[in-house]
Predict the 3D structure of the following.
Amino acid sequence: MKKRVLILSLLLMTSLKAESFDEFMTSMNEDYKEFTTQMDKDFAKALGKKWKEYDTTVKPSYNSPKPVVPPPPPPPKEKETDKTPQVVIVVINPPQERVPETPKPPSVPNGYAQLSFDFYSQNIQLVYNKQLRYRLNSFDNRAISEYWLRLSNVEIGNLLNQIKAYKRVLNLNDWHLYLLVKKIGNSIFQNSQNSKLLSWFLLNKLGYDVKIGYGTQSLYLMVGVEQQLRGLPYSIIGQRHYYNFEKVRNVLTYPLSFGNTRLLNLADNRVPYLKRDIETRLLSFEEQGREYRINIPYNKNMIDIYNNYPSLDWEYYFKQPISPITKAKMFRQLKEIMQGMTEYEAVNFLLHLTQKGFKYETDGEQFGRERSLFFEESLNYPYNDCEDRSIFFGKLVKELLGLNIVALHYPGHLATAVEFKSNVRGESISYQNRRYVVCDPTYIGANIGQAMPDFRGSKDVKVIPINY
């Protein structure tokens, strides 16, 4: 590093008459290669030292008992005098058709091979160095140290640039890229243990802090993530959380991270550009003697990628953007229906849409495990439960009407509360000097301000702010 700084200083101080700019850049590149080679050697040396088993912890899933059947609807009450202003509905323009680009694969020189596979219906074509096919037959710290040293002498810049190009043109976030790199490893090694080694190597070279661990002759990726995930074992190493997505404990790994690698950021909630596989969900319900039918398109490829997300805290499900095609077509239909409604009428309409448009079933009944759904996932599955309805309803209120919301976490239940622009009667909660009125999309038939009987006036509630 000091050598590079010295050379750069000399360049600025003199004309370097004896050396052309191209020669200077070649010298700089060689010096950088020397630096990275030394960094690889140091890391390989650290890998060769004794590994240890780190304590594992699991942040529990949201698995407290939920109502198997929602409570019966509340008795009708006198119609409230509606003094709320007329609602202002956000205008959503139809999205332009965006066809995912496919980076043109480079030519295949000697010593390289072509790789082709589908990534959520998007065809991926890559060229990679055949030396990346190097296999280990046994796994321990010394063998993995030698593996790193061997692969660090293989040309991989070409492949890394191709991966980065796909990340850019498909609008992938860190989690999507992690899935893509795993698919590359699995495609080269047909899902063997060596696919994990290659994925680990590539992810580190792409700048992500991912460790490899081993136990009973099996390898495990230990992925550094910024956010805390639920239901997965993790180890804290140097104040960072590393998750084992295979849910295996008793894994040996190393303390050092490679270079300045960073944690995966799962709060980066961009929507990837995937090929469209459009399906339509009909939400129908009756409101004040009139039947409403709303057809909502969604991209099945998005459902498939959401299905591979780890379990996050609820706030991230609220913040995940709705795909443009779903948002534009759904919001346009809702705007036509709700035009001229007051704020109270509009929120109550969306509340009843969510209550009556879906069938209720707990995650345990539908999936056999606790699982929260993103907005579009509620359109795909036949049932949803309390947190899914709160997410669905909350996003409609915030993004269609522009009103502030919070989530209310009661024991075994999640509801939503809305901040109105004028006074609305009913069960409410104060948070940061703002008044939020309870709106429960699981209390079927309830209006704004009506909480389930078990939670009326409850102090045992956690307010989850939803800010985005």
Q: What stands out?
A: The CA atoms of residues 271 and 321 lie 7 Å apart. The chain has three domains: 2-47, 52-57+100-253, 279-465. The longest strand covers residues 278-287. The two ends are 41 Å apart (CA to CA).
